[in-house]
Specification:
The structure is a homodimer. By secondary structure, chain A is α+β, with helices and mostly antiparallel strands. Chain A folds into two domains: 142 residues, Aspartate Aminotransferase, domain 1, CATH 3.90.1150.10; 245 residues, Aspartate Aminotransferase, domain 2. The first copy, chain A, is built from 13 helices and 16 strands. In chain A, strands 1, 2, 3, 4, 5, 6, 7, 10 and 11 form a nine-stranded mixed sheet that branches. The longest helix of chain A is centred in the C-terminal third of the chain and has 19 residues. Chain A is globular. At the A-B interface, helix 2, helix 4, helix 5, helix 9 and strand 15 of A face helix 2, helix 4, helix 5, helix 9 and strand 15 of B.
């Protein structure tokens, strides 16, 4: 079966070495970046940062976008703005990239790990509701963890590999248990839940433009919100809280140097212009890949949840439970062959720094973790096999 | 006198609008950045990040340099590596940019503000020694603040406007009072104290490559150290503490996403190649500027301290005490005329978030703050007035 899987991947990606996800620069990247260099506006002031924020807001439908240095910084500030205090608990999926938990820790708060839904790969709202009913109580409008006696302040869905979580279910929980919803949409630029862009359902949402993401700014992220005051606060907190003045350097709170530099935003503006085409290529790659696996028993291709449109950031194979023992052989064989694949992240509750954090039963996340394999997902696989740039046109 | 000063500045900078500090791109910036785009290595992996670190180490004489997203992030990590714990106090000058104090706050520690020396614009070691003798005690090898009973863990000299602090005096204090020395060399790339580069005297030192600095990477910073284990830890903590593995995502401590992206490092490599020429231009600008002010009473031009070679990052005017009342008129007139000038930063102990932090008598810093004015300092002022790129050659 391992050899069947390697052959199926080769039938899609060809016989060369292939990485998990490479950026694709076929638009105005050079032109915009060169304009930064020619005008010397490469740093925190410049027209591309402002434009990138406007373009992101327009694309996602959020009222405001604030561009920052990366997705971790975006989530750190979003959590602070959502009211996270030192000592609070924040509900995050155990199945996520470490940045989700780190951003909570950077607020001096504690991540509290919750289980996943096999259908969405995101937080399971039914299981979470039962857990919160059994383990928390409401006190003065706050959700209190009965065991630790701490305030559970925020619920952070993460849209795994670009697939939207069950936002209706999670919004209802946030409402019923007095939790603030903050979406970690680092992986889901271009993913929609019932026609609305992910990252725009919570009080705040966050994006990432790291080099392995659907579009990249080198390093970068953004905070999305529909609240103008939160947008103003996000901008202020990410730019050292400097008060506007012709020459005086006065700052009115402890803040951060998190602003995205103009040269990175220039890349982002060019990338965003090509997003429709990149998403089309990734969707096409999903179709081709799924078909290549259709006759292999014991394995399924992860597809977008019902009612959702996924960006298919990472193409994902899910082994049946009775084939999970093959995961490491598949990873070994593919990587040795020059096909870069990877498993889901080690669950957060299994990492040394987060081992003692509160957690619900995580049996589904544990099962998923033993069965998921990400396959090469670069849009260039489709674009280059087509021998044209057709798929990149908007 | 205000008009005399405006005229003196005009005699140096010409009659156009002139900013405080603009980057100067006359080398391989475009070539290196284009190489990033062509190879798609724009993010956290790539040859320019490694090269920039090697080049910085070679230039400064530090054994190791670790490139990060900005100077604040560099100081944050350096302080953590120096052992700063939540609740500790860290000695920082009141006369500094807010990032110095913010990095302390980001460690959940408290900045403790100390006074400046008019000769260096940095921390005054004689005054600091008297203060520490009067207000601290040694207990089990730690320096304890007698009033707050907290550990004073680290001493952070900042080399104001590029002028080296009295490092001999400060190293002696660190030694005698059991303090770790961490240098905030954000402003002093290219500045030397007794022939040795600033940022290499403490256990760790930090640099900044923000858009207004001597060289820029858009946004960027670096940690310098001679200790290989601290360098390894700095690298680990700034790259999410991920353990090396072909595919597994396992992280062994709470860490940060602070790595400098390759596209920003590409800019840095090109800029560093031109540093000698940029420093030569800035030194020339100092000579020309100082001469323009030589016949104006009541004002002096700040020059490098004895035994030091300064990068002259910002050219600085110092009003005599009996002329300090003119500071705001000078700032007003120059900025209205399109000559960007600025005062020293509002002292840290006067900012709302740091108002209640411990502080010694700050009378010299207060006096300096009322008398310092930074003048336009871009190397291009010299380079363009020469009509050639001569000053940029290494």
């Amino acid at each position: 079966m391992v050899q069947e899987i390697v052959s199926a991947i080769r039938s899609v990606v060809g016989n060369e070495r292939v990485s998990l996800h490479e950026p694709s620069f076929h638009g105005n990247e050079w032109q915009y970046v060169k304009e930064c260099l020619d005008t010397t506006f490469v740093s925190s002031v410049g027209k591309f940062v402002d434009r990138f924020e406007r373009d992101l807001a327009e694309y996602t439908g959020a009222s405001h976008a604030v561009a920052v240095v990366n997705g971790t910084a975006a989530l750190h500030i979003a959590l602070k703005l959502a009211g996270v205090q030192p000592g609070d608990e924040v509900l995050v999926p155990a199945l996520t990239f470490v940045a989700t938990a780190n951003a909570v820790a950077h607020c001096a708060a504690t991540p509290h790990f919750v289980d996943s839904d096999e259908r969405t790969l995101g937080i399971d709202p039914l299981k979470l509701r039962e857990y919160l009913e059994a383990t928390t109580e409401q006190c003065d409008g706050f959700c209190i963890n009965r065991i630790t006696q701490k305030v559970i302040r925020v619920l952070v869905p993460m849209h795994t590999f670009g697939h939207p979580s069950d936002l209706d279910g999670l919004m209802a929980i946030a409402h019923d248990f007095n939790l603030v919803l903050v979406e970690d949409a680092a992986e889901s630029l271009g993913s929609y839940y019932q026609g609305r862009h992910t990252g725009t359902f919570g009080l705040l949402g966050t994006l990432s433009f790291n080099g392995n993401k659907t579009i990249t700014t080198g390093g970068g992220g953004a905070i999305l919100t529909n609240d103008p005051e939160l947008a103003r606060r996000a901008n202020h907190l990410t730019t050292t809280a400097k008060l506007p003045h012709a020459w005086e350097y006065r700052h009115d709170e402890i803040a951060y140097n998190y602003r995205m530099p103009n040269i990175n935003a220039a890349l982002g503006c060019a990338q965003l212009e090509q997003l429709y085409g990149l998403l089309e290529a990734k969707r096409k790659l999903f179709d081709v890949s799924r078909k290549a696996f259709v006759n292999i028993d014991g394995v399924n291709f992860v597809s977008e949840p019902e009612g959702c449109r996924s960006n298919y950031w990472l193409q994902t194979l899910m082994l049946d439970e009775d084939h999970s023992y093959l995961r490491d052989s598949i990873l070994q064989s593919t990587n040795e062959e020059g096909i870069m694949t990877r498993p889901a992240w080690v669950l957060m509750n299994e990492l040394k720094p987060y081992r003692d954090c509160p957690a619900m039963d995580l049996s589904v996340a544990e099962s998923l973790c033993s069965r998921l394999i990400n396959l090469p997902s670069s849009p260039k696989i489709i674009i280059e096999s087509k021998g044209s740039k057709l798929y990149l046109s908007v």
